[in-house]
């Protein structure tokens, strides 16, 4: 699973956002070195025919409280690729109506065995930024009238190049191709069959990898950094 996001205010991330042709005047982008589950993250989506940046809770399923919403008891920071076409799963409708992209500098992964933490790695784009593919949902509170957006990152099967880092899954990194981006973000485009080739694990940019001691301690490094080249 993808357990944390790095959205550093870096030139590469800003340049990537510029290429997405986002409508100005909406929510400012959240820049934070460590964004964990249930925190807010800036997503790019199309809404009412406009491509906007919106801040969403990184936890797709929410539950109402008396005064607002809280994360559901069901963990939903990630949506598995093999649930996207199952009508009984939470990601089925968003996959057809509310796909998103998240511009980031990088992401983090932790490997566990029998509940024990084995190792953690911090990964960044060697140059520029990365696009993470995900889904979003809109929620409206029946009592307060509050509207809120939640999101998840789509996860794919493990990538052979990342097996020693995380053996169970790979976050869905998205190619920085304008035609594919347009098709992905188009909320009226429900021809999801065209996205099947993208649901195979792929690395589209060279990555810099650094082992760290704990997920939240990205400055506490272990060993020397190394690189993984794009596919």
From TrEMBL:
Molecular-function annotations in GO: lyase activity; peptidase activity; single-stranded DNA binding
Gene3D superfamilies, A to Z: SOS response associated peptidase-like
Xref: SUPFAM superfamilies: BB1717-like
Superkingdom per UniProt: Bacteria
Entry EC no(s): 3.4.-.-
Keyword Signal on entry: no
Keyword DNA-binding appears in the UniProt entry: yes
Enzyme class, first EC level, given as a word: hydrolase
Pfam families: SRAP (PF02586)
Record-level GO BP terms: protein-DNA covalent cross-linking repair; proteolysis
Record keywords: Covalent protein-DNA linkage, DNA damage, DNA-binding, Hydrolase, Lyase, Protease
PANTHER family in the record: ABASIC SITE PROCESSING PROTEIN HMCES (PTHR13604:SF0), DC12-RELATED (PTHR13604)
Family the entry assigns: Belongs to the SOS response-associated peptidase family.
Name of the protein described by the UniProt record: Abasic site processing protein
Originating organism: Planctobacterium marinum
């Amino acid at each position: 699973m993808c357990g944390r996001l790095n959205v550093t205010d870096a030139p590469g991330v800003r340049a990537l956002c510029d290429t997405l042709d986002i409508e100005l005047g909406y929510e400012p982008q959240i820049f934070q070195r460590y964004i964990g589950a249930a925190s807010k993250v800036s997503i790019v989506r199309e809404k009412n025919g406009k491509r906007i940046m919106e801040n969403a809770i990184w936890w797709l399923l929410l539950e109402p409280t008396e005064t607002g919403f809280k994360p559901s008891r069901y963990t939903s920071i990630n949506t598995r690729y093999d649930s996207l076409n199952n009508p009984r799963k939470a990601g089925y409708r968003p996959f057809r109506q509310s796909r998103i992209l998240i511009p980031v500098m990088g992401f983090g992964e932790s490997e566990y065995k029998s509940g024990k933490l084995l190792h953690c790695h911090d990964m960044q784009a060697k140059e520029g930024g990365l696009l993470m593919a995900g889904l979003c949902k809109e929620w409206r509170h029946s009592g307060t009238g509050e509207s809120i957006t939640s999101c998840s990152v789509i996860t794919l099967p493990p990538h052979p190049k990342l097996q020693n880092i995380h053996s169970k899954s790979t976050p869905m990194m998205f190619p920085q191709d304008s035609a594919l981006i347009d098709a992905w973000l188009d909320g009226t485009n429900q021809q999801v069959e065209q996205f099947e080739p993208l649901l195979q694990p792929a690395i589209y940019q060279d990555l810099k990898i650094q082992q760290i001691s704990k997920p939240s301690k990205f400055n506490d490094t272990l060993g020397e950094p190394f690189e993984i080249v794009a596919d």
